[in-house]
Write a structure and sequence with these properties.
By secondary structure, the protein is mainly alpha-helical. The chain has one domain (8-81, 105-180): Transmembrane di-heme cytochromes, Chain C (Fumarate Reductase Cytochrome B subunit), CATH 1.20.950. It is 77% helix and 3% strand. It contains 11 helices and 2 strands; from the N terminus they run βαααααααααβαα. It has helices spanning 10-34, 36-42, 45-58, 60-66, 70-79, 84-91, 107-131, 138-168, 170-178, 183-189, 191-210, and strands at residues 4-6, 180-182. The relative contact order is 0.13.
């Protein structure tokens, strides 16, 4: 039987899929609001706008709630830390051949997470200024609209890239769907994390077998 490793717990998967659904809702409703042809075809512009606004306001909530979990907080710390191996991985042209031992997240995933978090914060801030016009002066609202549009485009490109990478890696999709990945995939893609996870898993199995029955 193929050995597997736990990659993501229930909280991490719940946060990921909730944010993904909210993000897709924001992108689709934004497409309707900014494209006259879609707006005329679908109608109900005010309802679409409300769905867009509330989905946008809700985007940070799963991330904040997920921080209750110690395992999720550990993943956030891993995403927030660049190691020497990550810099070598970025500079290497053969970064995916497994010779550079990276941790649970490679440098590309860390950059994607940082850019996504920054963009969500920017969209939330500019969205609040646009939705509550009495809070700021006109020049701020104009700037917020401009920034909101460009950050929305950047997020859309990030999401498309994320989906394309996921399509090419069924084992990574399995990890986010079921929580577990094969040990062989982990060693090839995230060798440093695989070594750590397998040592921990073997220790748990050893303690379980040694326990009195």
């Amino acid at each position: 039987m193929t050995r597997t490793i736990l990659r993501f717990g229930k909280v991490a998967r719940a946060v990921h899929w909730t944010v993904a659904v909210l993000m897709i809702i924001c992108i689709l409703t934004a497409a309707v609001l900014y494209n006259g042809s879609f707006a005329v075809m679908i109608g109900h512009r005010h309802l679409v706008e409300l769905i867009h606004v509330y989905a946008g306001f809700a985007l940070p909530l799963p991330i904040l709630l997920g921080a209750i979990s110690a395992a999720y907080r550990l993943d956030l710390r891993r995403l927030n830390r660049f190691t020497p191996a990550d810099w070598r991985w970025l500079r290497s042209r053969t970064r995916r051949d497994g010779t550079i031992k990276v941790g649970k997240f490679n440098a590309g995933q860390k950059l994607n997470a940082a850019l996504s978090a920054g963009a969500i914060a920017a969209l939330l801030g500019t969205g609040i200024i646009m939705y509550f016009p009495s809070l700021t002066r006109l020049s701020w609202r104009t700037g917020a609209t401009f920034a909101h549009d460009w950050f929305a485009l950047a997020v859309g490109l990030l999401v498309i890239g994320h989906i394309l990478f996921a399509i090419r890696d069924p084992e990574a999709r399995r990890g986010m769907r079921t929580g577990r990945v094969s040990a062989s995939w982990a060693r090839a893609e995230h060798a440093a994390w695989a070594d750590e996870a397998l040592r921990s898993q073997r220790q748990v199995e050893k303690n379980t077998n040694a326990a009195p029955r």
